[in-house]
Amino acid sequence: MSEDLIETTSDEDDLFEHYRIVADKGQGLIRLDKYLSLHVANASRTKIQNGIEAEAVRVNGLPTKASYKVKPLDIVTLALPQPPRDTEILPENLPLNIIYEDDVLLIVNKPTGMVVHPAFGNWTGTLINGLVYHFQQLPTGRNGEGRPGLVHRIDKDTSGLLVIAKTEFAMSFLAKQFSDHTIERTYYALIWGEPKEPEGTIASFIGRSARDRRVMDVLPEGTHGKHAVTHYQVIKSLRYVSLIKCNLETGRTHQIRVHMQHLGHPIFNDPTYGGNKILRSVSSGNYKNMVESCFELLPGQALHAKSLGFIHPTSRQWVQFDSELPENFQAIVEKWENYLNYT
């Protein structure tokens, strides 16, 4: 019986399957691509070869060729797109705000309220349902299964930019950058209050809350959480709220939302992390009415994935994409500006 040690972990909002395989002492010489196709469930040899070419597969810490012969005790690591699910995805003619497209990828500006991929309770109306209608040959899809083209995701009520891969190679190439945390992602958020420091870094471990498994929490170092780093900068202070810019080093589930709650400044109208309550008490009926009118303008947290930068799979050049804040987000900022001017 093989004694290969196979460890799997998830990262970047659980979107990638990460493997660390230690070849057993009696392992005979075998091509790397064949070896991985025998050890990684639901990953085709083509997907693995694309991953090797994109340097998403490493042996003893170094990129290598598919023809490399795996030897005893070699350590093989890989970060590949998640394998297909067993759930059929129905194509739907949904409007997509595509701000850029070429032969290998596209950039979508997702609206607030749209779920990224089908899951329990949201099998239709998702971004993926729209993508498989407009783009029939996206990678990782088999007969409508999986999460075709999806490289990363953002929450339902978070708006903003997503990169979608159109080829298997682009999928692996981009996945590797997310795994290495070399993707540049900038978010804008409206938070309650004014941070003591106008800019700073929040570093912690984030994992499932012991009180409620549906939400994430900052955990003590050495527990089951994953290291998370968020850099923030105040763009505009409005006494009761602040518009901030966040840059992510890591991409943990709900990272910005959890970190801002931990800092004592939850994101405005975030129902999961305490931002949908009137947190700054003012003895004025006008203030309460103004806050509630802002809540009505936005269905969820005031968080927008504003810009995205990465190395392009084909040109190997750095590319950068930017987007405007949604109209309702901008309207809320303007309402706070006006309120501050008249009080």
Can you describe what's shown?
This protein has 343 residues and is α+β, with helices and mostly antiparallel strands. Helix content is 22%, strand content 30%. The protein has seven helices and 17 strands. The strands form three sheets. Strands 8, 9, 10, 11, 12, 13, 14, 15, 16 and 17 form a ten-stranded mixed beta sheet that branches. The protein has a five-stranded antiparallel beta sheet with strand order 1-2-7-4-5. Strand 12 and strand 13 form a beta hairpin. The protein is elongated and about 75 Å long. The N and C termini lie far apart (75 Å).
Topology of helices and strands:
Layout: E1 5-11, E2 16-22, E3 30-31, H1 32-39, H2 45-53, E4 57-59, E5 62-63, E6 69-70, E7 75-81, E8 98-101, E9 105-110, H3 127-134, E10 159-165, H4 168-179, E11 184-192, E12 199-208, E13 216-219, E14 226-237, E15 241-248, H5 255-263, H6 285-297, E16 303-311, E17 318-322, H7 327-341
Helix pairs in contact: 1-2, 2-4, 6-7
Bin the helical content: 10-25%
Major sheet attributes: 10 strands, mixed
Q: pLDDT under 50 segments (min length 5)?
A: 6-16, 141-145
Cα-atom radius of gyration:
22 Å
State the gist of this model.
The chain is built from 7 helices and 17 strands.
Record keyword descriptors for this entry:
alpha+beta; 10-stranded mixed β-sheet; about 350 residues; single chain; 5-stranded antiparallel β-sheet
